[in-house]
User: Which sequence fits this backbone?
């Protein structure tokens, strides 16, 4: 009963309590005057990517509202128009066409990686630059069709380097993998594990994203006797069920996960007591970063003192700041000029990662991350909350 209620609550939270993403929190013009600069956002608010897209989408709205309250960009307000592709690649063309028809000059692709990959081929026809705020798959910004798309965060190639550094430091040579069946995770796993020759995958189990029981999969993982288990999922109910089952059947076995669980505070409350204790996830939030500290203050003031900041928040915030800098550099909302302006932004201090972490772009560098120090391995404590950096290994800055 507890799990059923919890899963329902999480689903409602992830879906924004309904299918619409326009919402009453759509940014208004604030003190800005003049013709609005239209920004389009493809936000999965009801599909498998909703568990992280809704978090990022909420902070994107807050960041745009903050800009408008301070006079906008070039003295003009930012108008946000939103559509939902449900992380379904087949719905991407129509979704982007809708955003373009509403006057969008630049796009924010806040959806699953499989959907964003599909979007790449559409951008040239639309003539619109696009930023993927929380994208982590290197394919998103790699040729072909990458002339108009950009990413901020470290990719799965960097994740692979960090995981391998961690496994080697901890003496882990064999891992078992438990994954959900979404297209996003299938693409991510291929990109990630193709780069991880440092370990042997002795078992590779998969469960439905909407699964209610993962006991059989975990039993097979146990029989394979890996040195550690790694869960790869978009998060949400699947991740909670996976960690609950692993804690019960494989207690004491080292566990690793993607960024999803660390960036979904609602999930922590649904896990069994102590089920997340010792779990290590790929994080990007560093409490020593002064820009992170400022964002924490802003979001707590806006969302309440109990609000838990995530990498999705920080990457969403930095996306809006990048957009502001590009429009100002372009001196207009002309899409071609904005695209050229993004390519001229270098050493932009980031709100995620370590204090010295920056973002840089060029005509040939569409991935902003400057080095591995945009990542941190974070460990959960017995209270099912992140307790800080994992002491065994951290990526160099």
Assistant:
């Amino acid at each position: 009963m507890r799990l059923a209620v919890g899963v329902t609550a999480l689903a409602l939270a992830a879906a924004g309590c309904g299918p619409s993403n326009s919402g009453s929190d759509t940014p208004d013009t604030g003190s800005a005057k003049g013709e609005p600069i239209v920004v389009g956002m493809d936000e999965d608010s009801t599909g498998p990517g909703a568990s992280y897209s809704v978090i990022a989408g909420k902070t994107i709205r807050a960041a745009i509202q903050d800009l408008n309250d301070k006079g906008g960009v070039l003295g003009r307000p930012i108008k946000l128009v939103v559509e939902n592709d449900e992380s379904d690649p087949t719905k991407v063309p129509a979704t982007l066409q809708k955003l373009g028809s509403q006057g969008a000059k630049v796009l924010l692709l806040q959806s699953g990686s499989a959907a964003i990959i599909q979007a790449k081929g559409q951008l040239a026809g639309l003539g619109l630059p696009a930023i993927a705020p929380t994208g982590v798959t290197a394919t998103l910004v790699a040729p072909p069709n990458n002339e108009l798309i950009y990413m901020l965060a470290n990719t799965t190639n960097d994740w692979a380097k960090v995981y391998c550094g961690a496994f080697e430091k901890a003496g882990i040579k064999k891992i078992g993998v438990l994954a959900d069946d979404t297209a996003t995770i299938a693409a991510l796993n291929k990109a990630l594990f193709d780069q991880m020759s440092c370990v042997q995958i002795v078992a590779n189990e998969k469960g439905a994203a909407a699964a209610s029981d993962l006991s059989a999969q975990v039993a097979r993982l146990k029989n394979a006797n890996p040195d550690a288990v790694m869960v790869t999922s978009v998060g949400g109910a699947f991740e909670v069920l996976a960690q609950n089952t692993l804690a019960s059947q494989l207690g004491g076995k080292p566990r690793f996960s993607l960024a999803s669980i660390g960036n979904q505070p609602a999930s922590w409350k649904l896990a069994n007591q102590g089920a997340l204790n010792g779990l290590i996830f790929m994080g990007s939030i560093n409490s020593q970063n002064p820009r992170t500290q400022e964002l924490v203050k802003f979001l707590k003031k806006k969302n309440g003192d109990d609000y838990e900041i995530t990498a999705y928040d920080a990457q969403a915030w930095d996306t809006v700041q990048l957009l502001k800098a590009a429009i100002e550099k372009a001196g207009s909302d002309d899409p071609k000029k904005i695209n050229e302006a993004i390519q001229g932004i270098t050493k932009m201090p980031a709100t995620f990662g370590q204090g010295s972490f920056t973002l840089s772009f060029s005509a040939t560098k569409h991935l902003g991350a400057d080095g591995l120090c945009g990542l941190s391995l974070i460990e959960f404590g017995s209270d099912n909350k992140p307790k800080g950096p994992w002491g065994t290994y951290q990526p160099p800055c």
